[in-house]
Structure formats: structure tokens, C-alpha cells
Amino acid sequence: MRILQCRFDSYRGHKKGQGNDIIHPMNKKNLFLWSLYDFANSIVLIAFLFYFSQWLVIDQGKPAWWYNLALIISSALFIITAPIVSKRIDAGKSKIKGLRFWSLLAFIGYVVVSLLVMLSGDAEILVTVLYTLSTYAYLVCFLYFTPMLNDLSDGSDRSWKSGIGQGANSIGQVFGILIALPFANGITLFGDPGRAQALLPATLVFGLLSLPMLISYREDKISARTSKIGNSSNIFLLFKEVFSHKALALFFIGYFLFSDALLTFSNNFPLYLEVVHGVTDTTKSILSASILVLAALGALVFGKIADKKGNLKTLKLILSVWCLIFLCMVLITNFKLLVPLFLFAGILYGPVWAISRSLVGELSPQHLTASSYSYYVVAERFATLIGPMVWSVALIAMGEGARGYQSGIISLAVLLVVSIFVLNKIKK
């Protein structure tokens, strides 16, 4: 089903004619470090999605579109610069060096934002601007991080290894929630109490756990090679080359739509629980942690299934079930009845990203791996560009209450249906 990337054979110890790969010890170490970084970056992500959004909208009284505007601007900056960065990676530039630089910028930015939130509660404009820039730096990290999947795996186990990383990401989010919760509920380091205290501890842990990857990861020299397209100075030529592969282009369109739906809901999930169901921070944290644990298990299980049954087929089935989940969220108003539905949704959340990331490696031409993955991340960022717009329009039109959130969920379900239609057009 996948094309074996022969340029990694010597690195992975793969020998033709054998049923099993002989995995190089360094590959195991790099996979661990790669997964640990996925674990670490999710800690700071969930802390800011969970508590910064509520601090800004609920504690500081700003409208919900204010927070979503920060996501829109950071995504727009990323989308503009991503093709240029990815072109340099495909031209043979080291991925780990770029990851080190942008991880440091993101860490410093989030530390400054955390301190300002704790010490200066009336500086919402400055804090939001710095949060936007820090999020931009955080996003650029994935242009270097995500293509490393193809350095770590051949075609036979890509979804499984992607699932390992996605599972680590989900567990990292659980860890981030558990770290931040005691501070949000009463532990005060200094400055303003409450949600403002939750950001700095998560950011510091992110920095600490990122260090092993940034220090010890060793790149395969074979993967650092120059391609004709990668050396091209014409970004439009690069875009044309990547999207000339019809299956890959259709996948990116479908991915844009379904990631739009799922990420928009995920980013606004704490606000949805607060506004529609009046859920406390403790209940939100416990529920979110439970969902993320199940997402990690789902990524591992469905990663194995996708390697055997096919990535595309498995992904379309999962997205079809998600359409029903969104419909149930609109029709069911009793929170206690929704809890099992949320937990079930968690099982199907992790596999979406694990399988999607694997599909890019499967469908992309070898000499454009980094560029293909950059458009994958760009498509995800478009989701946090267009998605918040659609969501905000629904809230503005129907009001920032239960009816507005239900209208937003319906619009997301429509996006899922269209994405499945697009994915059905892919013929490998």
C-alpha cells in the first residue's frame, strides 16, 4: 500500500527478503526523543488553550472573538512564511537546528506571557499580541518536527509510529491539565490568583522536557539531501509541484475541512462547557484528561488498524462517526448524558491526527517530503484561521449562549460531511 523509501534502508537496517525490520538502536532512541518532544509541546499547548482562553474571555471580560483573533493572526503569519521555511528544509537544511531555534523562541515568548498574566492583569492588549507571536513561533516548530516521521519510519509502520507520537501528545495534554489544575484552583506562586497561575508551571515543564530532543536527537545524514525543486527560488513552482499530485492535493483539501471542524471545536471546548453546561474548572479538567487518555489509546489502536486495513479507509470511517457525534451534541442537552459521548469521541480524536500525518508521508513524493508536510501543517493552520471565523459568526448571529454554540457545532458537522466527500475522490 505504501512505497518503501529505500533511502532509509541502510539507516534502519532493513534487508530485502526478510519479514521483519531489524531496527537500528539509534532509530529507537530518536523515536523516543521525538515522542517525548510531542509529549512536551502538548503541555504548554493545552495550558494556554484551556486557561489563557478562559482568563481572557471570562476573567478579563473580553469577547470570545478576541481570543480567536489571536489564533487567526498567528495562523496567517504562519501560512505566509511556511512555504519558504519548508523549501529550505527540502534543500537539505538540518531539521533539528531549526527546531532548536524556534522552540527556544516559543519558550521565551510563553514565559513572558505567563509572567504578564500573573503580574499585570490589565495589560490584555500587550498580552494578546505576545501570545499571538509566541503561538506563531510554536507553529513553526512543526515544520521541522513533523517531517521527522519519515526519517523514523518506512511505509510499513508509519501509522503505528505516528500513533505513538500522537499518543504521547495526548498524554502530554493530560499531564499539562493535571499540572495546571492545582494552580488554577488555589496555589499562588505570586501575582494574581486563579487561572493566571496555571500558565507558568506548564511552560517551564515544556522547556525542561523538550531539552532531551533538542540536545540528543541525531539526524540521519542520508535524509539531508538536496533536490531540484528544493533549490528552486520560485515558491509558486514548489506549490505547483506539490499539488500536481492529485491524490495529495485532494487529501490536503479534505484535511483542511475536517481539521477545521475538529480543531475549532477542540479549541473552544472549555468555553463550550462553561457557557452551555456551566461546568466547573475541576470537572472540565477531569473530563478533558479522561478524553485525552482515550485519545492516546485510540491513536495507538487505530494506528495499527490503519497500517493493516488502509489509512484512507480507516480515516473516512472515523470521520463518519464524528458527524454523528456532533449531531448528538446538538440534540442532547443533559450534560450527564453527554459525558459518555465525550469519552467515546476521545477514542476517535487521536487517530484522526495520527492517520492523517501518516497519509502525508504515504502520498507525498520523496524529494518533497518536508514541503508536503509543511502544507499539511498549513492546512491545519487554515483550520484555525477559517474555523474561528465560522464559529465566531455563529456566536455573533445566534448569541453567545447555548443556541449560538449549537449553531456553531452544526456548521462544523457540515464541514465534516464535505471533507468525506472530497476524500472519496482520492484514488491511489
What does this structure look like?
The protein is mostly helical and 428 residues long. The protein has 16 helices and no strands. The radius of gyration is 21 Å and the shape is globular.
Low-confidence runs of at least 5 consecutive residues: 1-25, 222-234
CATH homologous group name: MFS general substrate transporter like domains
Order of helices and strands: HHHHHHHHHHHHHHHH
The major pleated sheet works out as: none
Mean pLDDT: 78
- Multimeric organization: single chain
Which CATH architecture is right? Answer: Up-down Bundle
Descriptors for this entry?
428 residues, Growth Hormone, Chain: A, 78% helix, globular, 16 helices, mainly alpha, disordered N terminus
Task: Please give the structural blueprint.
Blueprint: H1 9-12, H2 25-59, H3 64-90, H4 95-119, H5 124-145, H6 148-152, H7 158-184, H8 199-216, H9 235-243, H10 246-267, H11 269-277, H12 281-309, H13 311-331, H14 335-363, H15 369-398, H16 402-423
Summarize the structure.
With 428 residues, this protein is mainly alpha-helical.
